[in-house]
Specification:
heterodimer, A: 469 residues, alpha+beta, Ubiquitin-like (UB roll), Uridine Diphospho-n-acetylenolpyruvylglucosamine Reductase, domain 3, 2 domains, five-stranded mixed sheet, five-stranded antiparallel sheet, 19 helices, 18 strands, B: 756 residues, Aldehyde Oxidoreductase, domain 3, Aldehyde Oxidoreductase, domain 4, 3 domains, 30 strands, AldOxase/xan_DH_MoCoBD2 (chain B), metal-binding (chain B), 2 iron, 2 sulfur cluster binding (chain B)
Chain lengths: 469, 756
């Protein structure tokens, strides 16, 4: 049985755990405020909140319910737009949307309301940028967003007036309904021991799988692993960072130490899907999806990471991520094996990391080309270099030759221009809906240059590169 | 006045077609469609699909009791393919099952053998093969050919503008319920309830009065649900008719993207001639419209391209022609702007090209040719109350164009990795259905016993705020609070024989009808009050729910007045009809006065291009817009901002792609991108121009739905100007959308002679 709290109601259901949460709330529970726009996590009309009890405190995150398995709701508090409603009046968020004309046809509106409610409940700093991030996965075709920006701003202003944002404060100030105060206790009392799960397709966040094979997952047994503790956690010890493959992109985003080690982490991760998806998408899922353009794969390839694989017998094995991929969508993972964790050496003082991504739309889009680079420099000599690039080969590509070429060379534009020639010989882009091969080659060059202008702005400029390219 | 619908919107309580209650036993349907763009159907085997548990029945053209025909303008579009398929995604059968999931699973079990025939995907190919929907049309003014001989400058070129997916967030859908006596009620997400009713009747071979179409509201339409909401409603009705059970058909996003038409791609060529002092003396253009596999609304869309071919410029000698070209794509259809944007992109391209060649800023040519009062349009209408120069001057002065240009220049001089570009975009858009007979509407107004009011019109609420505007009109006439007024669903049994909610005219037409009905009721009520108060009706006014005599408040309240009227057996219901006066158009001469009025405006768009990555942002869009006298500034501003974003999307990131086999490649939201919150202009400033409004606009508040979309065209030129600033060897191109790919390729083209 799957047990959870849906808005103010405790649900126990024997429904198939691979059913989408969207279908359950909409068609089983008749909560029709949660809308169907795309069923791919690309529009946000089906946004709901997931409240998770963590050491006595509830952390709320927004997700797109269309690509989330019902079983992942087990033991959680799920909030739909109906669950944010007050009796006979509007919440601060709803009022802000109304007062600023931030709703026209109204179809995307519940998604925005829920996402902004999630923002008020979350532990993130209550500023305008974070409010916009909270609705980064919500598409509106009517308003042109300017009115929504005003609404978001108004919500931020109303929050800024108070330092403390406890449930009590949010309830007293009409951000959320009263029943929220009962949720922590009720969640604690919920009978949520691990469910017996059938053998079936492993599903963690589900963000790729539910886009690629929704009918298969709805029709067959799934084995949900998002809550498996041994696949979780980010640990830093002895200069090694070990990240459980169930970690989501948001887990990286929120990790204090990682943000110190990678000062541009949030800037980079903001280019990865939307907040709703980042809250669900697991690193392991991104790796085994094996998309040649997987953002996090490119990211960790350039960090020269290793991955740990666990077998059912309990015997683990390790291998470099760059050796994991064998061909288009094929990789070194046998039946019954699971990606367990990812390990990387923390960058040294003189190591610089950058991530670049270009797509039709900067946010919530799949890259035409993405690239990451990790460059160590000692006395103006490149002591170590790892460059990865996506969208230009059958696999997410670690640029072996380019990285090797750079290593040991002086950090000069001559080196970079020559390395770029090597890069061009290592890639073989094809023309598709994300761009022609000529474009991807040019973009590959540009993003390679961009790593150096970003990391060493005093040394390199765009003009210097292209004059000689 | 806030949008009155927003209360239920923000609470998730607004009802769309997929939210209405379903009857027990309701079946769900999925469309089986063609997986080839053109071919002969050799065989179809439904046996495995039919045998799947839970599948109720599969319907094909053979099950159609009436006509297998849904074409609105031209009867050239079958509901279900019979022996041939004409586009990838063309409906062939309807699979009805206990659940959508089962129906979709069954779809995968259908076996079809199609013998492929040659396909055409572009308008040019179609024209070469003489594959046309209907005879080409042309508008002519003066003598262009002769005038070119007198021009100091003559330039020619070609342009392309791509299609655009509507991407209403609510996909197409309908719910059909059988009633007694063979009657059927259909809840449809349509902009055109009468089109649905008429087509269902035709396909089922029954009378229209047996079909009731109800529209609660739309989760976006943008023209995509004007004609193309119809097939799904017809299919659901057909299944309900046979099964005597309710049937729901909601397209999933992939099916919707694949099966429905979009904004028309246009391949066009132009020739523009100017005098030394930059007056455009002559303009020729040929527009090849990619209509897709059936007419749909294409001839009407093509017509509007001609109407707007010269945008807001006066050109004395014009020769413009359009051909609706038949291809093997899904039938393209109405989309906000309705062919106007495609025409306007070409004249703007021609002007940009001329300016570039002559070596002057584009805006000098634009400014030198703006329309004035008493200028004639190529279709014979004399321009009156023209705001072209007014909005231009106001925009350039208010926003200080010289300073903005200086800013761009200075920025470009001191930045090498980023370049800015600026463009001005004037617009002129005619309001009315260009098909004159469609310009009418009705309103049915009930005043109930307790003084509350229910209004039914032909207007479909799809986000444009028409419900609120209708409420405002009634509240204003009766001087009662808006809470006492309810706008009913749009229903063919209450308001019949309607035009679709389209052409920006919904508020004008239905608002005028509502105003008329309310005024008749008001007159009646005044007579009641006058009799009771023993004064004349002329002395009576209603204010804030009280009767006033000669501007003095009486004790006689609105609710009492209604009770009194009931006792006096006065009709508290009124049905009014409104037809736009003055308009006419003679298609044999291609001359007339088709528009009630025109809407004008000028936008200044500034873009910044990242020359490393080829990406871009819009710093600002500054607009002076002609609202007339806006009756709802918040709603109208929302229309401007929303249309602008859609226009920019069309011109920049939204890229429809079909492969050579005619299969849609941009077939999901992951491959077709529309603007998100980070990609819209950082700053949008819209200032209303002070005008008197227009009598034919509702309460002098001009139509606002479509015109602002065309401000987005400026985005193309702003980006192109930034590219030019980086790469002086860049060849101007007029091939929209301007995607990051085109930008990057443009920044680095012709590198050998490049001077940065």
């Amino acid at each position: 049985m799957i047990t959870f709290i849906l808005n103010n109601k405790t649900i126990t259901t024997s429904e198939h755990s691979g059913m989408t949460l969207l279908d359950f709330v909409r068609y089983e529970q008749r909560l029709t405020g949660t809308k169907i726009g795309c069923r791919e996590g690309d529009c946000g009309a089906c946004t709901v909140l997931v409240g998770t009890l963590e050491s006595g405190y509830i952390e709320y995150q927004s997700i797109t319910s269309c690509i989330s398995p019902l079983g992942n709701a087990h033991g959680k508090h799920i909030v739909t737009v109906e669950g944010t409603n007050l009796q006979n009046k509007l919440t601060v968020i709803q009022e802000a949307m109304k007062a600023n004309y931030a709703t026209q046809c109204g179809f995307c509106t519940p998604g925005f309301v829920v996402a902004l409610t999630g923002f008020t409940l979350s532990s993130s700093h209550k500023n305008y940028d974070n409010a916009l991030d909270a609705i980064s996965g919500n598409i509106c075709r009517c308003t042109g967003y300017k009115a929504i920006e005003k609404a978001a701003n108004q919500v931020v202003e109303k929050l800024n007036n108070k330092e403390k944002r406890s449930f009590d404060w949010l309830i007293a100030n009409e951000f959320i309904p009263e029943y929220f105060s009962t949720i922590p206790k009720r969640l604690r009392e919920l009978e949520t021991k691990d469910r017996d799960q059938p053998k079936g397709k492993y599903v963690s966040g589900g963000t790729d799988l539910y886009v690629q094979q929704p009918d298969h997952l709805a029709d067959n047994d799934v084995h949900l692993i998002a809550e498996k503790d041994y696949l979780k956690g980010i640990n830093i010890k002895n200069g090694i960072c070990t990240i459980g493959t169930n970690s989501t992109v948001s887990d990286l985003w929120n990790h204090k130490e990682l943000n110190t080690i990678f000062p541009n982490l949030k800037k980079h991760l903001k280019l990865v899907s939307s907040e709703q998806i980042r809250n669900m998408a697991s690193l392991g899922g991104n790796f085994v999806n094996a998309s040649p353009i997987g953002d996090m794969t490119i990211f960790f390839l350039a960090l020269n990471s290793d991955i740990g694989i666990t077998t059912q017998g309990g015997k683990d094995r390790n291998l470099p991520l760059k050796n994991f991929y064998q061909g288009y969508k094929t990789f070194d993972l046998k039946d019954g094996e699971l990606l367990k964790d990812i390990q990387l050496k923390l960058p040294k003082q003189n190591t610089y990391f950058n991530f670049e991504k270009v797509c039709k739309r900067t946010h919530l889009d799949i890259a035409s080309v993405n690239s990451a680079a990790s460059i160590s420099v000692e006395n103006n000599i490149i002591s170590e270099a790892h460059v990865a690039i996506g969208g230009v080969a059958a696999i997410p590509k670690y640029l072996q030759d380019t990285s090797a070429f750079l290593t040991g060379k002086p950090l000069t534009s001559k080196t970079i221009l020559e390395a770029q020639e090597v890069l061009q010989n290592e890639i073989l882009p094809i023309s598709d809906v994300r761009g022609t091969s000529d474009y991807k080659r040019l973009l590959g060059r540009q993003l390679f240059f961009a790593h150096f202008t970003e990391l060493f702005p005093k040394q390199f400029t765009l003009n210097e590169f292209i004059e000689h390219a | 006045m806030k949008n009155m619908d927003s209360y239920t919107h923000v609470r998730g309580e607004s009802l769309y077609v997929d939210d209405v209650n379903v009857r027990q036993g309701t079946f769900h349907a999925v469309v089986f469609d063609s997986s080839k763009a053109h071919g002969k159907i050799k065989s179809i085997d439904y046996s495995e699909a039919q045998a799947l548990e839970g599948v109720e029945r599969i319907f094909t053209y053979k099950d159609i009791p009436g006509e297998n025909e849904i074409g609105g303008i031209i009867k050239d579009e079958p509901l279900f393919a019979e022996r041939e398929v004409h586009f990838w995604g063309m409906p062939i059968a309807l699979i009805v099952a206990e659940s959508e999931f089962i129906a979709r699973k069954a779809r995968g079990l259908v076996k079809i053998d199609i013998e492929e025939l040659p396909i055409i995907t572009t308008a040019k190919q179609a024209k070469e093969n003489d594959s046309l929907i209907t005879k080409p049309r042309s508008f002519s003014l003066g003598d262009a050919e002769k005038a070119f001989a007198d021009c100091d400058y003559v330039f020619e070129g070609e342009t392309f503008s791509n299609g655009q997916e509507h991407l209403y967030i609510e996909a197409q859908g309908a719910y059909a319920e059988p009633l007694e006596n063979g009657n059927i009620k259909i809840t449809s997400s349509t902009q055109g309830p009468t089109a649905v009713q008429k087509t269902v009747a035709q396909v089922l071979g029954i009378a229209m009065h047996k079909i009731e179409v109800d529209v609660t509201r739309l989760g976006g339409g943008f023209g995509g649900k004007e004609d193309q909401a119809t097939p799904w409603a017809v299919m659901a009705a057909l299944a309900a008719y046979h099964l005597n059970q309710s049937v729901k058909l909601i397209l999933n996003r992939h099916d919707d993207l694949r099966m429905t038409g979009k904004r028309h791609p246009y391949e066009s060529s132009y020739k523009i001639g100017l005098s030394k002092d930059l007056k455009i003396l002559a303009y020729e253009a040929e527009f090849l419209q990619n209509a897709g596999a059936a007419a749909d609304l294409s001839p009407a869309v093509a017509e509007r391209t001609l109407f707007h071919a010269t945008n807001s410029y006066y050109i004395p000698n014009v020769e413009v022609a359009v051909a609706s070209c038949k291809t093997n794509l899904p039938p393209n259809t109405a989309f906000r702007g309705f062919g106007g944007p495609q025409g306007m992109f070409v004249i703007e391209a021609a002007i940009a090209k001329a300016a570039h060649e002559i070596g002057i800023p584009t805006r000098r040519i634009q400014e030198a040719n703006l329309l004035d009062d008493n200028d004639v349009f190529s279709y014979g209408q004399i321009a009156t109350k023209v705001e072209a120069k007014n909005t231009w001057k106001s925009a350039t002065a208010t926003f200080n164009i010289a300073a903005l240009e200086k800013e761009v220049e200075d920025f470009n001089a001191s930045n090498s990795a980023f370049k800015k570009g600026l463009a001005l975009m004037p617009i002129c858009f005619g309001i009315s259905f260009t098909n004159t007979p469609m310009n009418h509407a009705r309103a049915l107004v009930h005043i109930y016993l307790d003084g509350s009011i229910g209004i039914s019109t032909a207007a479909v609420e799809m986000g444009q705020g028409v419900n609120t505007k209708m409420m405002q009109i009634a509240a204003d006439v009766f001087s009662i609070p808006i809470e006492k007024i309810k706008i009913e669903t749009t229903n063919t049994t209450r308001v019949a024989n309607t035009s679709p909610s389209a052409a920006s005219s919904t508020a004008d037409l239905n608002g005028k009808a509502t105003l008329k009905a309310c005024k008749v009721l008001l007159k009646r009520l005044k007579t009641v009050a006058a009799t009771y108060l023993k004064v004349t009706a002329e002395q009576i006014t209603l204010k804030d729910e009280f009767v006033y005599i000669e501007d003095k408040k009486s004790k006689f309240e609105w609710t009492q007045l209604i009770s009194m009227a009931m006792l006096e057996r006065v009709a508290l219901t009124e049905n009014a009809h409104y037809a736009t006066p003055e308009i006419h158009f003679d298609k044999t001469k291609e001359k007339g006065h088709p528009f009630a009025y025109h809407v004008y405006g000028t936008a200044i768009i500034t873009a910044t291009v990242d020359c490393m990555r080829g990406t871009y942002e819009f710093d600002s869009v500054k607009i002076v817009h002609d609202y007339g006298k806006s009756m709802s500034e918040g709603i109208d501003l929302g229309q401007v901002e929303g249309a602008l974003a859609q226009g920019i999307g069309w011109m920049t990131m939204e890229e429809i792609a079909y492969n050579d086999e005619g299969r849609l490649l941009s077939n999901a939201l992951s491959t077709y991108k529309i603007p998100d919150i980070f990609s819209v202009p950082k700053e949008v400033e819209v200032i209303p121009v002070e005008t008197q409004g227009h009598e034919l606009a509702i309460l002098k508040s001009k139509a606002v739905g479509e015109p602002p979309l065309m401000y987005g065209i400026g985005a193309y030129f702003a980006i192109q100007n930034a590219i030019k600033a980086f790469n002086s060897n860049y060849d101007l191109k007029f091939h929209a959308p301007m995607t990051p790919e085109k930008v990057l390729m443009g920044l680095y083209e012709n590198p050998n002679t490049s001077q940065h």
